[in-house]
Amino acid sequence: LSWILIVEQALNGLQFGLMLFLLAAGLTLVFGIMDMINLAHGSLYMLGAFVASTLVALTGSFTAGVLLAIPATALLAMLLEVSVLRTLYERDHLSQVLATFALILILNEVVRLAWGSDAALPMPAALSGPVQLLPGLQYPAYRLLIIGVGLAIAVLLYFLVTRTRIGMLVRAGASNREMALAMGVNIQWLFTAVFGAGAALCAVAGALLGPLFAVQVGMGENILILAFVVIVIGGIGSIRGALVGALLVGMVDTVGRAFLPILFGHFLQPRVASAAGPAIASVSIYLLMAVVLYFRPKGLFPARG
Amino acid sequence: MKKLIVLGIALIGLPLALQAADQMFYVSFASRVLIYALAATSLNLVLGYGGMISFGHAAFVGAGAYVASICLAEGVSSAWIGWPAAVAAAALLAWLIGALSLRTRGVYFIMITLAFAQMMYYLVNSMKAYGGDEGLSLPGRASLGFDLGNEIAFYYVVLFILAAVIFLLHRLVHSRFGRVIAAIRENEARAAAVGLPVFRYQLACFVIAGAAGGLAGALLASHGKYVNPGVLHWVQSGTLMIMVILGGVGRLWGGVIGAAVLLGLEHVIADYPLPWLAQLYPNYPQHANLGVGLVLLAIVLFAPQGIAGLLSRKRHAQA
Questions:
Q1: Which of A282, B60, B195, B289 is buried most deeply by CB count within 10 Å?
Q2: What is the torsion angle, in degrees rounded to the nearest 10, for the CA atoms of residue B176, residue B182, residue B183 and residue B184?
Q3: CA distance between the termini of chain A
Q4: Which residues does chain B have within 8 Å of residue A252's beta carbon, measured at their own beta carbons?
Q5: How confident is the model at residue A305 (pLDDT cuts 50, 70, 90)?
Q6: Ordered DSSP codes for A214-232
Q7: The pLDDT value given to residue B314
Q8: Can you tell me whether residue B181 is helix, strand or coil?
Q9: Could you tell me if A230 and A249 are in contact, meaning their C-beta atoms sit under 8 angstroms apart?
Q10: How confident is the model over B153-180, as a mean pLDDT?
């Protein structure tokens, strides 16, 4: 168990956590401001990855393709918001679950019709090699790029939410929607904008993770649950909570998968350890969530006082 | 009451008619619909009557399915042992999950039940001794003292169990217990203020629903002679929830209607291609979920009370 492995896994955890943050940030705002459960958020992530794969192939440039995919996905999402989701805000949570579950089915099939079951999104050649971070520590350049982009977006979002007028409206909406309405905030416009922004973040995550994982139909469904775990741990409606929750979940998941089997190997029989290690590692984030909710039933940073 | 008798006669006569028409596939299909109706009805107890939006009901169905399957795989073929064991295991799991989850409210409750179900999903996935992620094929169906391998006998057993559960549910929601549960759903603070032990009643409701879900799971495993971790996946919880919402939340027949409509819809779209559409696009049955999704969306937007609500509204309009 060398320090190199530990640093490597910590960086992997950071990278995964930051991408989860991009998904969770949009989800927590939609949840917090519009009080709406959007199960189709994972579908926007999938849509972003597929749109990026087409645009990267069309433009011949990874950067240009991804940069174009972001507004394109946001636009599609805003169309969805105006046409369907808007009518759901007034409805109860059950109706929202049913409608957005239906949207998952519909979007999955629409993507399958348009692109097929999977698409190719190759890693840019210039970034496919490793980079020497420290003597003896090699780390893939592409993953470093993801970390860099994730950190940049996190900082940008932080300033947007805490230092600008739009951010103020968003925070007002999240902490007390009725009061924000009464103060004359144009909620409808704000909702569409927030939904589009959330979709743009989904597209960034989908396009960047595409080359690492497979771009395929259904890719959004498992990561959606992780994003929900993140925002529940962080506290619904809180961007800060989403960041802390995402980093926690990313770290616990990655580090758990890497080290729990080794740790178990020290005091269990190899056969038991090799079975129990991965099992405990994959439930560790849910255990984390259960523990957090047991002590803080409204998450770590509740947005509503 | 008259309608109920007609429905009963129809359901009892159904397999005989299908056998006469040489459509044994549909006897098996009908059993599957009835099993899902049982699972959805059990969810409706917590969701509709109890007002607790549990997004992890597949955990209880799956626990029942796996316990019943493990009994079979280990050579205990009597359903008199396997099925009660499945019910007990599901009830115990529901008690554990419920005791922790019911500390939270609203969206947090939805998410924590989901998280526990996912935990169970991953645990079952890693049970290498019982198939792991590939699932577990069973040597045959459980035995009640007579052979359940016969599709028609199995159908009647499932029908009997479903009828019994619906009768008990009917009695339960009209009992003192049911009134208390409804009071808590309508106004929890007020129920607590008049001195009702809210947590205990909610937990009891959650455990009863989990136990019934476990029974559905045991039947499901016997029906397919196969079980895999997919029965615990969150999409399965979602599907059960869809059945309840589709049929009618908090309505006695909601789960049954929802299961029949959803499974029927999936089957019809996938296996009975419309000629004109097939000509236009030959592969379209592969995209059956598109149709299912559009119908579900239409129901949310235009029939907020579910199908049972739609039916009873029509009746009111006539009266």
A1: B60
A2: 110
A3: 45
A4: none
A5: very low
A6: -EETTHHHHHHHHHHHHHH
A7: 55
A8: helix
A9: yes
A10: 94
Q: Which of A299, A197, A178, A186 is nearest to A248 (CA)?
A: A299
- A150, pLDDT greater than 90: yes
pLDDT digits (tens, 9 = 90+) for A229-263: 998 899 888 888 999 999 999 999 998 888 887 77
Residue (of B16, B3, B1, B41) closest to B260 by Cα position: B41
Q: Which tens digit of pLDDT belongs to each residue from B217-244? A: 999 999 988 999 989 988 899 899 989 9
Is the separation of the CB atoms in A21 and A152 below 8 Å? no
The answer to ipTM > 0.85 is no
β partners of residue B137: B226
pLDDT digits (tens, 9 = 90+) for A59-93: 989 999 999 999 999 999 999 999 988 888 888 88
CA B229, distance to chain mean position in Å, is: 16
Task: Please give the torsion angle defined by the CA atoms of residues B272, B273, B275 and B280, in that order, rounded to the nearest 10 degrees.
Answer: 180
Give per-residue burial for A159-189: e unless 16+ CB within 10 Å, then b: eebeeeeebebbbbbbbebeebeeeebebee
Degrees to nearest 5, angle at CA A299 with A38 and A244: 85
Sign of the torsion angle spanned by Cα atoms B24, B28, B29, B34: positive
User: Which chain B residues are within 8 Å of A34, Cβ to Cβ?
Assistant: none
Query: What's the pTM?
Result: 0.85
Q: B2: which DSSP letter?
A: H
Q: Which residue of B has its CA nearest to A290?
A: B112
Tokens read off for B314: 């029509």
Residue in this structure with the two tokens 């968003």, named with its chain if needed: A170
- The reply to whether residue B110 touches residue A93, judged by beta carbons under 8 angstroms, is yes
For residue B141, the Cα-to-chain-centroid distance in whole angstroms is 20
Minimal-distance CA residue of chain B relative to A273: B126
Does the CB of A291 have a partner CB in chain B at under 8 Å? no
Instruction: Give me the mean pLDDT over the A177-187 stretch.
Output: 80
Rounded Cα distance between A109 and A107, Å, is: 5
Distance of CA A276 to the CA centre of its chain: 28
